Amino acid sequence: MRAKIGVVIAGAAFAMFALGRAESLRAGRGFADSLAWAQEADDQADDAAVSQDETPQDDTDASQDDAASADDATNSAITNKDVAGIYSGVMMDDARGAGTYLGGFITGLNSHTKLSGTFTDSLDGTGFVQGKVNSSGGISLKYRLKVKGGCIFSFKGTFENGNEIMGTYNRAGCKGGPGQGTLDIIKQ
After folding, report:
1. What's the rounded Cα separation, in Å, for the pair 94 and 106?
2. Residue 19 or 137, more confident
3. How big is the chain by its Cα radius of gyration, in Å?
């Protein structure tokens, strides 16, 4: 039993370390800032072009182009790489009350949809999670408390705002019997 707990804790620590290292490498290379700067430069060039040409038809075309690009941004497909990271937040169980949650997701190799990771929560303990995300941000996950344990949480929710997962879960095979609740976690 202690060996299994040690494996779970080591897996959680490794996932958090690996995700943190990947984030620091990405941020250290300045990749995140380059995209924002390039977008800002494009917006300023578009504004200058519109102000120089006072034709009402061009203003209409420019505003339609801006609306189309805004639609493209909201319609961009969400992948597992968008969701991957370390999350913390709260869970509210219908029978057991409020609890805290900490967990990490890593991406599946050769897949844009698969996720896996480890978690710990104050109501149940530590375990493993597997699931997938669809291109519109829908997430389905299975939380298992032990490697071969029967306590499973089935989660359905959404990835929103680029950093938040929220939804509901049903639990089965756990101490205290079946139940349900909500989970709201934010990427750290």
Report:
1. 29
2. 137
3. 21
Surface-to-core class of residue 137, CB atoms within 10 Å of its CB (0-12 exposed, 13-18 middle, 19+ buried): middle
Q: What are 16's two structure tokens?
A: 């958090």
Helix (H, G, I), strand (E, B) or coil at 48: helix
* Contact (Cβ atoms closer than 8 angstroms) between residue 143 and residue 155: yes
pLDDT tens, 95-111? Answer: 889 999 999 999 887 78
Given a contact cutoff of 8 angstroms between Cβ atoms, the answer to whether 159 and 140 are in contact is no
Dist CA 2 CA 22 (whole Å) = 30
- Domain of 48 in residue numbering reads as 1-188
Q: How far apart are CA 134 and CA 83, in angstroms?
A: 11
Instruction: Say what the pTM is.
Output: 0.60
Q: Is the pLDDT of residue 62 over 60?
A: no
C-alpha to C-alpha distances, 13 to 2, 103, 121, nearest whole angstrom: 16, 10, 15
Q: How many structural domains are present in the chain?
A: 1
With CA atoms as reference, report the closest residue to 107 among 85, 77, 91, 139. 85
Return the structure tokens found at 114.
Answer: 């698969």
Closest alpha carbon to 1 in 149, 153, 118, 120: 149
CATH of the domain at 75: 2.40.128.30
